[in-house]
Design brief:
Layout: H1 4-8, H2 21-30, H3 38-45, E1 54-57, E2 80-83, H4 86-91, E3 99-102, H5 109-123, E4 127-130, H6 139-173, H7 191-201, E5 209-213, H8 215-230, H9 233-240, E6 243-247, E7 259-265, H10 269-273, E8 282-284, H11 301-309
Parallel strand pairs: 3-4, 3-5, 5-6, 6-7, 7-8
Antiparallel strand pairs: 1-2, 1-4
Helix pairs in contact: 2-5, 5-11, 6-8, 7-8
Length: 311
């Protein structure tokens, strides 16, 4: 029988029962928790990270290249720094984080940090995880608000972008074309999307890598679309140069974004169900929706990311 103790036994975590079921069940299934240290697993399991929280995760070697002198949140272990919101992150001393990940449906701070550690280990640079959910207790609501709501919005944006592309020349050449009002930067934004928009809009920061898994990719697409609609030209151009990677969902990103790689496991029925399969993407053979390398048929994100970044 699959229990928290049996899942965590190979990781050598003492007192595995201290980890809450709500965070463990989905995070252990979908994300590479063995990449976190026992102390980090223990610390993360005792904190409910609100949506929009930012967790900065160091590479396995403990590098402090980014946010090195920043304060550590209560309950966090070495190698992790947790910030309640964008303002707290921005106020911390040290170099500005330039790699951002967002985990998928049902993930908690535990899954978000595990995803960030996977990326940090590949790039050897600290990585910020924007928390998008609370774990298993919110799986149903996250699924409804994630794949259904965000997915519908993504499809609608893609349809509008296609229409604008087809009639854009006529509109641009029309002297009487009406002005289209722009929405406010954070209007109707969920906390995770609002945090992403703030990160991308920071005049002193250049985010050069954005990676989302499952619903996390939809949150990134929503944030990029908002930036492209509302930000100044310099901010839009900077955001458009970020390397964007999606895993477990093939979706529409703003056409201004120059570097997009979309990964979908050949066995990923959940991802395929919520994807626009006509868009360019890379099929990963014998891979499902999960990223946990301890389980069979996983999507080896580290290997795929090295190929994308030529590392």
């Amino acid at each position: 029988m699959l229990t928290p103790a049996t899942i965590l036994a190979p990781m050598g975590v003492a007192g595995a029962r201290a980890l809450a079921w709500r965070n463990l069940a989905l995070d252990a299934a979908f994300y590479d928790l063995p990449g976190l240290t026992p102390a980090e697993l223990e610390a993360l399991s005792h904190v409910r990270h609100e949506e929009g929280t930012v967790i900065v995760v160091d590479p396995p070697d403990g590098s402090r290249e980014v946010m090195g002198a920043g304060p550590k949140a209560s309950g966090c272990a070495a190698g992790l720094r947790s910030f309640a919101n964008y303002e707290a992150l921005r106020a911390a001393p040290g170099r500005l984080v330039s790699q951002v990940v967002v985990a998928g449906v049902g993930s908690s701070g535990l899954g978000a940090a595990a995803l960030a550690r996977t990326v940090a280990a590949v790039t050897e640079r600290p990585t910020a995880a924007v928390v998008a959910g609370y774990g298993a207790e919110d799986f149903v609501s996250e699924a409804l608000g994630g794949f259904f709501l965000f997915g519908a919005a993504n499809r609608a944006r893609h349809a509008r972008q296609t229409l604008r592309h087809r009639v854009g020349t006529m509109i641009a050449e029309s002297p009487n074309a009406p002005a289209v009002p722009k929405p406010l930067p954070h209007q109707f934004a969920t906390p995770d999307v609002a945090t992403l928009v703030r990160l991308l809009s920071d005049t002193d920061r250049r985010v050069d890598l954005l990676l989302g898994h499952s619903k996390g990719a939809l949150a990134i697409a929503a944030a990029l679309a908002r930036v492209m609609r509302t930000a100044d030209p310099v901010t839009r151009a900077k955001a458009a140069r970020a390397q964007v990677v999606s895993a477990g969902a093939v979706i529409a990103f703003p056409p201004e974004v120059q570097w997009v790689t979309q990964l979908l496991g050949a066995l990923d029925g959940l991802g395929a169900l919520n994807s626009r399969l006509g868009l360019p993407h890379r099929r990963v053979a014998m891979a499902g929706h999960h990223l946990n390398t301890a389980l069979p048929f996983h999507l080896d994100l580290a290997r795929e990311l090295r190929a994308v970044l030529n590392l």
